[in-house]
Amino acid sequence: MAFRFRSIFSATPKLHSSKRVRAKAFGARISMEEEEAAPAFGPGTPLSTVADAFERLTAELNTKEFCNVKLKPFCEACSLVSVLFGCLGIAFKFAELEYVAKVQSLTEASSRYETLESILDYDVENKSVKTAGSLSRNLRRVRQGLHLMKDIFQNFLSSCDSSLKDAASNAYAKVCAPYHTWAVRTAVCAGMYALPTRDQLLERMKENDVSAEQEMKRYINALNPIIDYIDNLYISRNITLDW
Predict the structure, then answer these.
(1) φ and ψ at 115, to 5 degrees?
(2) What φ, ψ does residue 160 adopt, rounded to 5°?
(3) Angle, helices 71-87/135-157, rounded to nearest 10 degrees
(4) Which of residues 108 and 61 earns the better pLDDT score?
(5) Hey, which end of the chain has fewer CB within 10 Å, N or C?
(6) 24-68 pLDDT per residue, tens
(7) What pLDDT score was predicted for residue 65?
């Protein structure tokens, strides 16, 4: 029995790199907007490119005692993660859709707000931090998506015998399930059986066991300070994180 749940997403995700390749292979037309919005990967793999981007953000964060993370480069790094969600297949399509929509809203806001801190300051002043569609709420959801991928990687690396289903199920239960409705949790649970195998995931990410471990650890280590920074933006303004 297939489960359906109402969409909680407010935007249609842009065509990412792997979809662009498939579309061109079949002669499909791609709009200029989709071409420009697609994450641009260099000579490295998608996973190594993501790790590079977040290492640059972390390096910048560590260079100054009171550094504020710039919104535009943050969004550029986050946009690359959507391809990793795509590698997980239909099981995490809900996460990919929500994540891409929220990153897109922050990207559009980067012409008006220079830093992540300025987003919080505006919404705090206007008492709209937790309002649906607010940039502060969208930032929380993007941070949640980054954390979900980090925990999937951590679980994936915890054992050579660990299946992707176990890794993803445990990560979802910890990071996302507490904030989702019963219908969403049920649909996600059913979708876990459609996850790729460990070997299929590595193939989709263009990695092997050795390179995947190296790049996943780079992503995890680079992301930890970013997550702490984002959490502290809320905590320092007396905003709880249980939402």
Answers:
(1) -130, 165
(2) -65, -25
(3) 50
(4) 108
(5) N
(6) 333 333 344 444 444 544 458 999 999 999 999 999 888 766 678
(7) 65
**Is the CB of residue 49 less than 8 Å from the CB of residue 41?**
yes
Tell me the residue type at 213.
E
pLDDT at 5 over 90: no
10 Å CB burial of residue 25 (0-12, 13-18, 19+) is exposed
Higher local confidence (pLDDT), 162 or 236: 236
